[in-house]
Amino acid sequence: MSDTPAAASGAAAPASRTNASRTNGEDLDEHGLPKDRLLPRTHISNAIDRFILKTGHLASWIWVALIVGIIVNVTLRYVFGRATVWLEELQLYFYAIGFILGLSYALAYDRHVRVDALAERWSARTRAWVELFGMVFLLLPFSVAILVEAVPYVLTAVRLNEGSPAPGGLPYTWILKSFIIWGFALIFLAALSRTLRCTALLFDRPRAL
Fold first, then answer.
1. Which residues of 93-129 are buried (b: 16+ CB within 10 A; e: fewer)?
2. Any idea where the domains of the chain sit in the sequence?
3. In whole angstroms, how far apart are CA 99 and each of 106, 128, 184?
4. Is residue 42 packed enough to be buried (19+ CB in 10 Å), middle (13-18) or exposed (0-12)?
5. 165-174 long-range contacts, Cβ below 8 Å, gap at least 24?
6. Residue 111: is its pLDDT beyond 90?
7. Is there a contact between 100 and 181 (Cβ–Cβ < 8 Å)?
8. What is the pTM of this model?
C-alpha cells in the first residue's frame, strides 16, 4: 500500500511534463523550443530562435488588429455609408507587417512550404547539405543585399517624412518601410541559426547540445 502514492505521483509526473511541453499548440523540446527532428540545436541557435519565437508571438497580434480593422471598415462602409481611406491603408500595412515579420518565424521553425517529393527520400545529412547550401549561397547573401539597399531607402523616407499620397491617407509611411529592415534582419538571424544547426550536424561545429 505504501507504494501506491509513489506510483500515482510517478504516473502524474509524465502527464505534467507533457502539458508543460506544449505552448500555443506546438510541441516543445527540452530547450523550450518547437521540436525539430532533423537538425540538432546549439547554444547560439537557441538564443536566436528564442528571440524569434518571442517576436513571432508578439507579431501574431497584428492579425487580430487586422481582423478588427476589416470589421470596422466594412461596418463603416456598408452600414453607415462612410469610406475611410486611412483605415483601408492601415489594413494593408498590418498585412504587410504581419507577413514580413512572420517569415523569420516560419524559417526558424520549419513552417514554410517545402518541396518534399525529393527531400523526404534523402538522409538527414543530405538534407542538411542542401539546406546549408541554400542558406550560405542564397538566403544569407540575399538578406544582406536587401538590408544594404533598404537602409538608405528607409532613411530617405524618414528624412522626407513620407506620407500617403492619397487624400485622407495615413501619414508617416516611413514606419511601414522601416519594417523591411526589421523583417530581413530577423530573416538573416533565422538563416544564421539554421546554418549553425546544419554545421553542427555535418561538422560538429559548433557543438550540438
1. bbebbbebbbbbbbbbbeeeeeeeeeeeeeeeeebbe
2. 39-203
3. 10, 26, 11
4. buried
5. 166/85, 166/89, 167/85, 168/84, 168/85, 168/86, 169/85, 169/86, 169/89, 170/86, 170/89, 170/90, 170/93
6. no
7. no
8. 0.83
